[in-house]
Design a protein that fits this description.
With 382 residues, this protein is α/β, with parallel strands linked by helices. The protein has helices at 16-30, 76-82, 94-106, 129-143, 155-163, 188-197, 219-229, 245-255, 272-278, 293-300, 329-341, 343-357, 362-381, and strands spanning 2-6, 34-40, 47-48, 52-55, 57-59, 67-69, 86-89, 110-113, 149-152, 169-172, 205-210, 234-239, 260-265, 281-284, 305-308, 323-326.
Length: 382
């Protein structure tokens, strides 16, 4: 099969969409498919490699690091002549419009993955959350009219699309992760050296948040809860960078005086696994996730996950099995203290966390995507 993947987000950017695309691209090729990627350039210049087309773009002010590609581009004819059998779109903006034009020309189906719960991001452009949700609902419904099928990373997103009255074939397909990346071992010496570099007291346990520091990730709640937990024997390690980095660091310095809070800033993708190895348990207060890749990565590293309750992680983070979905500070505190003070309990959670993650491999992800493509092609020919 010839498969064109269209995405506004692509390497070297690091986020959940990029991780999903890179894993899918690689595994589909391993399964014998010919895969090319259509994305936007980080510059005002188009260029390409053997398998990827980068379309010139300009910065988009509505969201940090977002870019708008020029829909008319010089690679359109080349892609049409290559004649993909199907297009898998990953974003709803520039490359989506480009992909629809190619699909119309070739009369081929488009499968779309709806990665982002936009109503959680309306604070970037709309002061009213209620109005923002209505706008997102209408836009989503209209945008998805041309596609053959829609993939939702979780039941949460599938239910949301149904609420938006998106009447398409809807599939739930959790994004896979490269479990092999986390099978590496960080030696005691390497771990001690990294802790020393980060100025983490050698005796402290580590509560780890790892991810993009944006407002919708609700890291402020983690900082507030850490302050209220008031444990001098615990370090809150906030790993990652993003547009909210400075505000969060200032907030932590103000609120958590006398406590150990460490910010790493941006981490190289190849070094991410090391920070998971430092943690004793993982924390997140986000309710804006559609995939929750960092939750699964944490579990793959045998970290119990303490996360704000969210349908996105139903069936992933299971209460008192591999972690806990909290709804209040009291629940957060109870689980955190049990993990910190009861090593047998933490070990039990860790083992269950690792087992849970094994069901989210990139191989399974690609196999299921392939079946959706075959089904969409079959229905398109009816």
């Amino acid at each position: 099969m010839k498969i064109l993947i269209a995405t506004d987000w692509y390497a070297p950017t690091v986020n959940g969409v990029v991780t999903s695309v890179l894993n899918l691209e690689r595994r589909l090729r391993e399964r014998g498919h010919e895969v090319r990627v259509l994305t936007v350039s980080e510059k005002l210049r188009s260029h390409k490699t053997d398998t990827t087309y980068y379309i010139r773009s300009v910065s988009a002010p509505i969201y940090p690091e977002a870019r708008i590609g020029f829909v008319k581009h010089r690679y359109y004819k080349e892609i049409v002549e290559w004649a993909p059998d199907i297009i898998h779109t990953q974003c709803e903006f520039s490359t989506y419009i480009m992909a629809l034009a190619i699909a119309r020309k070739l009369q081929i189906p488009v499968v779309h993955t709806y990665h982002t719960v936009y109503e959680e991001y309306t604070h970037y452009f709309c002061p009213s959350k209620k109005l923002g949700k209505v706008v997102v609902s209408v836009l989503t419904r209209n945008l998805l009219k041309p596609v053959k099928a829609v993939i939702a990373p979780t039941e949460k997103v599938k239910n949301l699309l149904a609420e938006y009255r998106v009447h398409k074939e809807l599939y739930v397909l959790p994004t896979g992760i490269e479990l092999e990346r986390f099978e590496k071992i960080l030696s005691k010496e390497e771990k001690a050296a990294l802790r020393q570099e980060l100025q983490i007291p050698p005796e402290n346990k580590i509560m780890l948040f790892l991810g993009r520091l944006a407002k919708e990730k609700n890291v402020s709640e983690i900082i507030e809860y850490f302050k209220r937990l008031n444990r001098s024997d615990v370090t809150l390690l906030i790993a990652g960078g993003g547009p909210y980095f400075k505000e969060l660091k200032a907030e932590a310095e103000e609120k958590c005086q006398g406590l150990s809070v460490v910010f790493t800033g941006m981490i190289k993708p190849d070094d991410v696994w090391k920070y998971y190895k430092l943690g004793d348990f993982f924390v997140s207060a986000s309710t804006s996730e559609t995939q929750g890749l960092t939750y699964i990565e944490a579990l793959a590293n045998s970290l119990p996950a303490l996360c704000r309750k969210d349908p996105c992680i139903d069936g992933v983070v299971k209460n008192n099995v591999n972690g806990f979905q909290y709804e209040s500070f009291d629940e957060f505190k109870a689980f955190a203290e049990k993990v910190l003070e009861n090593e047998a309990f933490r070990k039990e959670m860790s083992e269950a966390a690792y087992e849970t993650a094994q069901g989210y491999s990139t191989q399974i992800f690609a196999e299921k995507a392939e079946k959706i493509y075959i089904s969409s092609l079959s229905k398109a020919s009816d």
